[in-house]
Write a structure and sequence with these properties.
alpha/beta, 8-stranded parallel barrel, 6-stranded antiparallel beta sheet, 399 residues, single chain
Length: 399
């Protein structure tokens, strides 16, 4: 049973939580409430309060816009939760301190008003207090939307330099696949064939993107943000990282070279960090085929199933084989994405599909499971189900 207690939960702890918590604790107002001098009171309006007081202007002829806002705010998957206020800090502490939670990570792909240094300082302190490892999850080659864009305009700006050769298709998370009809790599811009729709839809900043084309190369595997977080990690003694979309040995070499360079600005004695290689593309699978754990003993593999599944859109029949290959090459590999996803639906219940999925991953040989950050919104249910349903299920799957 102990082998299954290495459960890892993704927790996106945005520093605004700590700041608001300190505001309240320092006397800015009662715990759980915002004072008149707080950031929210100074820069924002409490629309709920205004609605109760009847001070909001009526909205006429905006039924679609209102329903769109409700839809976005109600999404239960692929959101980055923001923990704000003392209640949320208490929730974060409960999650981190739970015996089933082995480690935590910070996903650097989101946006924050705070610097990488401040973020890392806060999270490193919290993880250390509960004797958990903090992983800094670097973007690497993760492709995202760089600027908000109307779908009907048929173009989108990406966050990386790239090379593209058509034909190709592009997937915007939550919006589906679109045909690529052209590109201007020097502007990081891709042109798509818009879908017909009565409603006007948007591609949002930081929205995840997957491109499948005759040739698609993302140039460089470490962004400025990645380097800033790596430097902050060296400063505060964080030596565990994850790297997205690892596709070659050169990606690993580049990471360790940059880390050594940054580490030497603080100390000559910083150990070589652990690096989890997130396999989430067809090129990543090709790397795994020739992988040897002895070659890079500080590295582990992760089956990042969501993006991997999307990248194999034209060869889905090979998907399960790819997952098996990863665990065969690294018996300590982590499996992530879409685990217990039924809890994120309206009824908040595990489905038979969830159970079959976990049993299959166990039969493949996976012992380390990483749940999404969205699970923080149904944490108690997730941990109860893991204890009462998943652990017995995994034991049965092994017998």
């Amino acid at each position: 049973m102990a082998q299954y207690l290495s459960l890892i939960i993704f927790i996106l702890l945005l520093p605004v939580a700590w700041y608001l918590y300190r505001q309240n604790k320092s006397g800015g107002g009662k715990a759980g409430a915002f004072s008149s001098g707080s950031v929210l009171a100074k820069y924002a309006r409490d629309l709920t309060k205004l609605a109760v007081l009847g001070k909001l202007d009526p909205v006429i002829g905006r039924e679609h816009e209102i329903s769109r806002v409700v839809e976005i705010l109600s999404r239960r998957t692929k959101n980055n939760p923001v923990l704000a206020g003392s209640d949320s800090i208490a929730l974060a502490e409960k999650i981190i301190s739970h015996p089933l939670v082995g480690d935590v990570r910070y996903n650097t792909g989101g946006s924050s008003p705070y610097s990488p240094r401040k973020i890392t300082e806060i999270l490193a302190s919290m993880a250390k207090a509960y004797r958990k490892e903090l992983y800094i999850d670097l973007e690497g080659r993760q492709v995202r939307v760089a600027k908000w864009s109307l779908q009907s305009r048929g173009s989108v700006v990406l966050n990386h330099d790239f090379e593209l050769e058509l034909p190709g298709i592009i997937n915007f998370r939550g919006c589906g696949w679109f045909k690529i009809i052209g590109a201007k790599p020097e502007q990081r811009k891709i042109y798509i064939e818009p879908k017909r729709s009565k409603a006007e839809n948007f591609f949002g900043e930081s929205q995840s993107v997957n491109v499948v084309a005759k040739k698609f190369i993302v140039k460089g595997n470490l962004s400025r943000s990645d380097l800033a977080f790596m430097k902050a990690a060296c400063r505060y003694g964080v030596d565990h990282f994850m790297l997205s979309f690892v596709e070659s040995r050169q990606d690993i070499v580049n990471f360790y070279r940059q880390h050594l360079k940054l580490a030497r600005t603080f100390s000559e004695m910083i150990p070589k960090p652990e690096l989890i290689l997130k396999i989430e593309s067809r090129k990543g699978i090709e790397l795994v085929r020739s992988w040897s754990a002895d070659e890079y003993p500080e590295c582990r593999l992760m089956a990042a199933r969501d993006d991997l599944f999307l990248s194999m859109v034209n060869e889905r029949e090979k998907y399960l084989g790819a997952l098996q290959l990863i665990i065969e090459k690294d018996p300590q590999a982590i499996v992530a994405s879409r685990l217990m996803s039924g809890l994120l639906e309206a009824n908040e219940e595990m489905t038979s599909g969830d159970m079959a999925d976990l049993a299959l991953m166990s039969l493949f040989g996976y012992k380390h499971f990483m749940l999404s950050d969205s699970m923080s919104r149904c944490f108690d249910i997730a941990m109860e189900d893991w204890q009462k349903i998943v652990l017995p299920l995994l034991r049965q799957a092994k017998t």
